[in-house]
Amino acid sequence: MRYQVRYVDQIRSWVVVDSKVGDKVLALHDKEQSAKDAAWAEEERWYKCSPPNELNAAMG
């Protein structure tokens, strides 16, 4: 999964990170479930915008 959820003690917050871009922080959340929901939404958005490489290879 490209987007991951982690808890950061120093800021007492849940973060959504993009693991393919050097763990870039995309969002901060107070609750774990809202962070998980945001990570899932980002994952879905990414797949809709960028099909997997196998599809790109077959098309081109």
Descriptive overview:
- The protein has 60 residues and is of the alpha+beta class.
- Helix content is 42%, strand content 30%.
- The protein has 2 helices and 3 strands; from the N terminus they run βββαα.
- It has helices spanning 32-49, 53-59, and strands at residues 3-8, 13-18, 24-29.
- It has a 3-stranded antiparallel beta sheet with strand order 1-2-3, with helices on one face.
- β2 (13-18) and β3 form a beta hairpin.
- The longest helix is centred in the last third of the chain and has 18 residues, at 32-49.
- The chain is elongated, with a radius of gyration of 14 Å.
Q: What's the layout of helices and strands?
A:
Blueprint: E1 3-8, E2 13-18, E3 24-29, H1 32-49, H2 53-59
Antiparallel strand pairs: 1-2, 2-3
Strand content: 25-35%
User: Biggest sheet, open or closed, and with what strands and sense?
Assistant: 3 strands, antiparallel
From the alpha carbons, calculate the radius of gyration and give it in angstroms.
14 Å
Q: Helix proportion of residues, in percent? A: 40-55%
Low-pLDDT parts are: none
Please trace the helix and strand order, writing H or E for each element. Answer: EEEHH
Separation of the first and last Cα atoms: 25 Å
Shape by Cα distribution: elongated
Oligomer: single chain
Mean pLDDT: 85
Q: Order of strands side by side in the largest beta sheet? A: 1-2-3
Compute the number of strand runs: 3
Structural class: alpha+beta
Number of helices: 2
